[in-house]
Design a protein that fits this description.
This protein is an alpha/beta fold. It folds into 3 domains: 59 residues, Orthogonal Bundle (434 Repressor (Amino-terminal Domain)), CATH 1.10.260.40; 130 residues, Rossmann fold; 131 residues, Rossmann fold. Helices cover 38% and strands 17% of the residues. It has 11 helices and 14 strands. The chain is globular.
Length: 346
């Protein structure tokens, strides 16, 4: 034991049998597993700075390391039910914090949305930092917390994060543009959109990406083809029904998430429509539900676990006294094409 009573320091010797995995190194450095693998396999298409960072992390794992394990824990707030979306993010955060020898205090569940939690965090002696997942509070509340010099990182911010607050999210604009471009290339021009709540940052970004793809095809926005809802399967079913019952129904519907898309599949089935022959449906997130749906959903994959790992990486840098150069990091999304989208009906 080293140091005073105010901190706990332990000596950890890494033997050959418990050296870090590629995932461990990725979590520590903030690079993807694929990038770490390329470095370890000595591929040439890796930047010198990236290679040096990874190799230093590997070397640290090989020799005895002094790790400070306190004081205080990291408070992780997820004021939502831990479904597969939020569950993947929280699990990744927990695993990565464990790699950094930091304790986690989890506050999850919808009841937490109505509690004035943020103002109390700096006064909790057992907390050293926080990770806030899709916080419902407005930006001024986050600014007030930052002014009290309490370290925290926001994951998937609901509103535009203040410029000096670290945040991690997915590239919503690019993902939405990619899926709508896919539908346009299939010949669709009458495309409906079931979006999320109007005051969410992701809703604005995905709407902008959707409209950018339509504009590139020379299609003007059609307000009657847009619905804003809470992102649930039942709300999705009702909203899709409204679009399909319109005198000018869409030939395709893009949805804010996979749950809404499954609701749209139900609405199509209730009206005797076949997907994708009569109607194409696309989601967003690529959770397990997208693969279990029938037909399997075309969707946009968000790097949910990487978002959790990157949030911890950002937080450790803040705790080490560094000011992150990229305060708002957007992680790349990817289009996953499955059986729920097809050529526009003639």
């Amino acid at each position: 034991m080293l140091g005073s009573a105010s901190r706990c320091v332990s000596l950890i010797a890494m033997s050959d049998s418990n050296r870090a995995t590629v995932r461990d190194i990725a979590a520590e450095t903030g690079f993807s597993i694929a990038t770490v693998s390329r470095v370890l396999n000595d591929h040439g298409n890796v930047a010198a700075r990236t290679r040096d960072t990874v190799l230093r992390a590997v070397e640290r794992r090989r020799r005895p390391t002094v790790v400070e394990t306190g004081p205080g824990a990291v408070y992780v707030r997820c004021p939502y039910i831990l479904t597969d979306y939020f569950g993947l993010i929280v699990s990744s955060i927990a695993e990565t914090l464990k790699l950094h020898h930091m304790r986690m205090i989890l506050d999850a569940g919808e009841a937490s949305q109505h509690l004035d939690t943020l103002a109390e965090l700096p006064d909790q002696p057992d907390l050293r930092a926080a990770i806030l997942i899709l916080p419902p509070e407005h930006g001024d509340r986050l600014v007030a917390l930052a002014r009290r010099n309490f370290p925290f990182v926001v994951v998937d911010p609901r509103t535009p994060p203040p410029p000096d607050i670290a945040a991690v999210s997915a590239a919503h604009f690019a993902g939405a543009r990619a899926v709508t471009t896919h539908l346009v290339e299939l010949g669709h021009r009458s495309i409906g959109m079931i979006a999320g709540p109007e005051d969410w940052l992701a809703t604005d970004a995905r709407g902008a990406g959707h409209h950018a793809a339509l504009a590139a095809a020379g299609v003007l926005p059609a307000p009657h083809r847009v619905r804003h809802i809470e992102p649930t399967t039942e709300r999705g079913r009702l909203a899709a029904g409204e679009l399909l019952d319109h005198p000018e129904p869409p030939t395709a519907i893009v949805c804010f998430n996979d749950k809404i898309a499954v609701g749209a599949l139900h609405a199509a089935r209730e009206r005797g429509l076949h997907v994708p022959d009569d109607l194409s449906v696309a989601g967003f997130d690529d959770i397990d539900l997208s693969r279990a749906a029938f037909p399997a959903l075309t969707t946009v994959r968000q790097p949910l676990q990487e978002m959790g790992r990157m949030a911890v990486t950002q937080l450790t840098r803040v705790l080490d006294g560094h000011q992150p150069e990229a305060l708002h990091i957007e992680l790349a999304t990817s289009l996953v094409i499955r059986q729920s989208t097809g050529p526009a009906p003639t």
